[in-house]
């Protein structure tokens, strides 16, 4: 539905629409809306459309659910991939790994542990890495940790 359900500080539930241009920023990095998790504390710039529905074009994560110990995050089997680092996009928190003849985009979750963020910031093209995380699509992998 391309909607986010929010509970305001006053306890009211709201549904806010978003699209591919909606920016999500956490710790000065851009992320996909799909990286938001239940329990994240956010601020957003929203407008009301002609039909009285809210639309967000900018979302700032003030505090990630995991930072507060909220345990409602994603579940599932962890996968491992390894290979040479290709293009690194430090602004979006992502890099490419060439793994078994294909290229996989590895994305940092906006609530990555400091050790993972620090390791990401030291990456250079051509480095050989082994990582653990979850596939979010055929060629997109959300990083959990470096091995």
Overall number of strands: 11
What are the secondary-structure elements, in order, as H or E? EEEEEEEEEHEE
Secondary-structure-based class equals: mainly beta
Q: Give the radius of gyration.
A: 17 Å
Helix content percent band: under 10%
- Catalogue the unreliable spans: 71-75
Biggest beta-sheet profile: 6 strands, mixed
Average pLDDT score: 84
Q: What is the strand content?
A: over 45%
> Looking at the structure, what is the overall shape?
elongated
Distance between the termini: 36 Å
Number of helices: 1
Outline:
The protein is mostly beta strands.
Q: How would you portray this structure in words?
A:
The chain has 147 residues and is mostly beta strands. 6% of the residues lie in helices and 51% in strands. The protein contains one helix and eleven strands. Strands 1, 2, 3, 4, 5 and 6 form a six-stranded mixed sheet that branches. The chain has a five-stranded mixed beta barrel with strand order 7-8-9-11-10. The longest helix is centred in the last third of the chain and has 9 residues, at 114-122. It starts with a strand and ends with a strand. Mean pLDDT is 84; it is low at 71-75.
Mind sketching the topology for me?
Layout: E1 3-7, E2 13-17, E3 23-26, E4 29-31, E5 41-48, E6 54-63, E7 79-89, E8 94-99, E9 102-107, H1 114-122, E10 128-137, E11 140-146
Parallel strand pairs: 2-6, 3-6, 9-11
Antiparallel strand pairs: 1-2, 3-4, 5-6, 7-8, 7-10, 8-9, 10-11
Descriptors for this entry?
147 residues, mainly beta, 5-stranded mixed barrel, elongated
């Amino acid at each position: 539905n391309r909607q986010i359900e929010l509970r305001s500080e006053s306890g009211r539930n709201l549904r806010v629409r978003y699209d591919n241009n909606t920016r999500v920023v956490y710790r000065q990095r851009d992320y996909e809306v799909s990286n938001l998790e239940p329990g994240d504390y956010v601020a957003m710039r929203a407008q009301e459309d002609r039909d009285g529905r809210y639309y967000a074009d900018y979302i700032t994560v003030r505090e990630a659910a995991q930072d507060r110990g909220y345990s409602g995050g994603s579940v599932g089997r962890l996968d491992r991939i390894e290979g040479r680092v290709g293009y690194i996009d430090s602004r979006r928190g992502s890099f490419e790994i060439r793994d078994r003849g294909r290229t996989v985009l590895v994305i940092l979750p906006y609530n990555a542990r400091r050790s993972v963020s620090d390791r990401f910031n030291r990456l250079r093209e051509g480095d050989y890495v082994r990582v653990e995380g979850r596939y979010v699509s055929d060629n997109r992998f959300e990083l959990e940790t470096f091995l």
